[in-house]
């Protein structure tokens, strides 16, 4: 039996919709089969498990998203512009694929070396240029003294945490998905402003 690319694409698109509405844990293979309009046996022929299916979707997201982030990190823009661009791009992606952050967290805790090798190959994220840029801005008196890695972790934390805590935030506030996404759209400006104001001299 030969795998049909159009059927595989149909399954991947269906899985993205189901993961988006139900999350990684809430999604079932039957849900994905129903959304794709196929039977469960055919779904299992293409993808042996939900984890394998999700992993392929994640790798597609990562291969499109990471080059954009790396381009920002290695760009010649000012530090403040870089922070703004990074936050906007990062949060935009998370709004589109909110099921990804929890998957990354789980995989990093489960098998950090294997996961990073799968995503990055033998390359490391190009953060060195950003770290050097931060050091230069400190010496030039543009920003307050701060450990560069602390600044990078602050930026990442403020971008990622709301998506990891989304179920709790929605439960406490009574927000639906649309309201939550509107709040996250606001964070594209709120987060860089907060970061920049905290380090600016």
List key phrases describing it.
201 residues, HTH_TetR, Tetracycline Repressor, domain 2, 0% strand, TetR/AcrR family transcriptional regulator, single chain, transmembrane, mainly alpha, Arc Repressor Mutant, subunit A, Homeodomain-like_sf, globular
Question: Number of domains in the coordinates?
Answer: 2
Determine the mean pLDDT: 91
* Approximate strand percentage: under 5%
Q: Based on the structure, what is the oligomeric state of the protein chains?
A: single chain
Kindly report the CATH topology of the largest domain.
Tetracycline Repressor, domain 2
> Alpha-carbon distance between the termini?
65 Å
Corresponding CATH architecture of the largest domain: Orthogonal Bundle
- CATH superfamily (homologous) name of the largest domain: Tetracycline Repressor, domain 2
Structural class: mainly alpha
Shape: globular
Overall number of strands: 0
Rg value: 19 Å
Helical stretch count? 11
Please write the CATH class name of the largest domain.
Answer: Mainly Alpha
Unreliable stretches, pLDDT < 50, 5 or more residues? none
DNA-binding region: 28-47
Transmembrane segments: 151-172
Keywords: DNA-binding, Membrane, Transmembrane, Transmembrane helix
Protein name: TetR/AcrR family transcriptional regulator
């Amino acid at each position: 039996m030969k795998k049909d690319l159009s059927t595989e694409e149909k399954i991947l698109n269906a899985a993205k919709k189901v993961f988006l509405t139900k999350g990684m844990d809430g999604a079932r293979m039957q849900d994905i089969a129903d959304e794709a309009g196929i039977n469960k046996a055919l779904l299992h022929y293409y993808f042996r498990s939900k984890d394998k299916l999700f992993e392929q979707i994640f790798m597609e997201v990562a291969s499109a998203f990471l080059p954009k982030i790396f381009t920002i990190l290695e760009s010649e823009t000012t530090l403040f512009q870089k922070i703004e661009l990074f936050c906007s791009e990062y949060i935009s992606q998370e709004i589109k694929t909110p099921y990804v952050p929890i998957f990354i967290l789980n995989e990093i805790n489960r098998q950090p070396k294997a996961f990073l090798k799968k995503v990055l190959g033998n390359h490391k994220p190009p953060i060195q240029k950003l770290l050097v840029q931060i050091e230069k801005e400190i010496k030039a008196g543009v920003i307050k003294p701060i450990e560069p890695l602390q600044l990078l972790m602050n930026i990442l934390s403020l971008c990622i945490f709301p998506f990891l805590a989304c179920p709790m935030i929605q439960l406490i506030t009574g927000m639906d998905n649309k309201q939550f996404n509107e709040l996250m759209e606001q964070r594209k400006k709120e987060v860089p402003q907060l970061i920049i104001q905290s380090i600016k001299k």
